[in-house]
Amino acid sequence: MSTKISFLASDMADAQAALQALTTRYGQVPVEDAEIVVALGGDGFMLETLSAVQPLDKPVYGMNRGTVGFLMNTFSEDDLPTRVAEAEEASLNPLLMRAEGVDGKVTEALAINEVSLLRAGPQAARLRISVDGKTRMDELVCDGALVATPAGSTAYNYSAHGPILPIGADVLALTAVAAFRPRRWRGALLPKSATVRFDVLNPEKRPVMAVADSRTVPDVASVEVRSEANIIHRMLFDPGHGLEERLIREQFS
C-alpha cells in the first residue's frame, strides 16, 4: 500500500518545479489525509510548515529547494516512498513568546528556532533580564538578545556567538547580540524548564521589537519566553543525517 503524501512548496521557482515533478510522479493528497507531509523549500519554509501542520500531528520530511537547508534533506525525485519510510524522526518542543507592547497589547507566538529582541532605533537597547522571577541582570546594553532551542542553536544564535546545543539537551541558550555593557557577557545556558523575562528599559526612547522565528512584534515593553512542552513538532531525516549528527558536524566544519 502506497504512502499518502501531501506536498507543500514555497513560492521559489525551484520549489514549484519540484512540486510539479513530485506530484506528477507520486500523487497528491490533502494535508488532512496525509501520512507524511513533504516540504519543498528552505529552512524558513520548513519552519512555516512545521507550525502549520503541528495541530494535525503530521511528521514533516523536508527536501532542500532553498539556500542553506540545515533542516532539510537532500533533494531527489527518486524512491521517495522508501526514503520517508526509512527516515529517522526527531521531536521538538517550540518556545512560547508572550510579548507585551508599550500600548498594553499582548501577543503570543511560537518559535522553533529562537525568540529574539532587537533594537528598533539608532540607540542601543537596554534590557533587564529575569529568570524564573529572579532578576539576573539589572541592565544589558546591547543590540539585542535571544533565547534559542537546541534545534535553533546553529541559526541566529550561532551567528551571535552563542553555543551549539546537542539536540537532546534539556537546556536553552540565552545569548546577547552585540553586547556593549557588560562588554564581555556572552550569555548563559538555562534549564529547558526556565522562564526568561526581558523588560525593556525606556522603550519610548530606545524602542525594541521581538521576533519569534518570523513573527515580529514591534515596540515591546516586556517579553517572556519559555519552552512549550505540550506542543511537539515532528521532523523526518534520512538515516545518518538527523539533527544530532548535523549539530555535531556543524562544530567541526
Short description:
With 253 residues, this protein is α+β, with helices and mostly antiparallel strands. It is 17% helix and 39% strand.
Question: How much beta, percentage-wise?
Answer: 35-45%
| Architecture (CATH level 2) name of the largest domain | Sandwich
Structural class: alpha+beta
What share of residues is helical?
10-25%
* Series of H and E elements: EHEHEHEEEEEEEHEEEEEEEH
Oligomer: single chain
Major sheet strand order: 6-5-16-13-8-9
- Count of separate structural domains: 2
Task: Give the rounded overall mean pLDDT.
Answer: 94
Q: Please state the CA-atom Rg, rounded to the nearest Å.
A: 19 Å
Q: What characterizes the major β-sheet?
A: 6 strands, antiparallel
Unreliable stretches? none
Shape: elongated
CATH class of the largest domain: Mainly Beta
Number of helices: 5
Ends apart, CA distance between termini: 41 Å
The CATH superfamily of the largest domain is known as Probable inorganic polyphosphate/atp-NAD kinase, domain 2
What is the number of beta strands? Answer: 17
Outline the structure in words.
The structure is a single chain. This protein is an alpha+beta fold and 253 residues long. The protein folds into two domains: 5-92 and 232-250, 3-Layer(aba) Sandwich (Rossmann fold), CATH 3.40.50.10330; 95-227, Tumour Suppressor Smad4, CATH 2.60.200. Helix content is 17%, strand content 39%. It has five helices and 17 strands. The protein has helices at residues 13-26, 43-53, 80-86, 156-159, 243-250; strands spanning 5-9, 36-41, 60-64, 88-92, 95-101, 106-111, 114-119, 125-131, 134-142, 144-148, 171-177, 188-191, 195-200, 208-212, 215-217, 220-227, 233-237. The strands form three sheets. A six-stranded antiparallel beta sheet has the order 6-5-16-13-8-9, with no helix packed on it. It has a six-stranded antiparallel beta sheet with strand order 12-11-10-7-14-15, with no helix packed on it. The chain has a five-stranded mixed beta sheet with strand order 1-2-3-17-4, with helices on both faces. Strand 2 (36-41), helix 2 and strand 3 form a beta-alpha-beta unit. The radius of gyration is 19 Å and the shape is elongated.
